[in-house]
Design brief:
The chain is mainly alpha-helical and 107 residues long. The chain is built from five helices and no strands. The protein has a single domain, classed as Cytochrome Bc1 Complex, Chain D, domain 2 (Orthogonal Bundle). Helix 1 packs across helix 4 and helix 4 packs across helix 5. The relative contact order is 0.25.
Length: 107
Amino acid sequence: MNQWFVVIIVLVQCLIGPASSAEPQTGDPGAGAAYAQQVCAKCHAIDRAGMSPEPKAPPFKDVANTPGMTETALTVWLRTSHPTMPNIIVEPADIDNVIAYILSLKD
């Protein structure tokens, strides 16, 4: 997994504190999967299996299974520009849907 991704997640967790694993999801995982297929699959493996086309892009299943991964952490991650990721502007409803989809991949 990309070391910067892990660093950002740890930083976010330090800033916002521990989140409940029962955090309510607000998005539609089906719509998030469709968006991810269209926009994210160029770089990320977006399903439960497979390797990402871009080796530095973590598979969504790995993102979902990162210890402490929450809706809040993913929201911060997707709303922050990153040197290792294209600066894609994602609409708020799409962010909620993609987050719901990613979290649906948790083991």
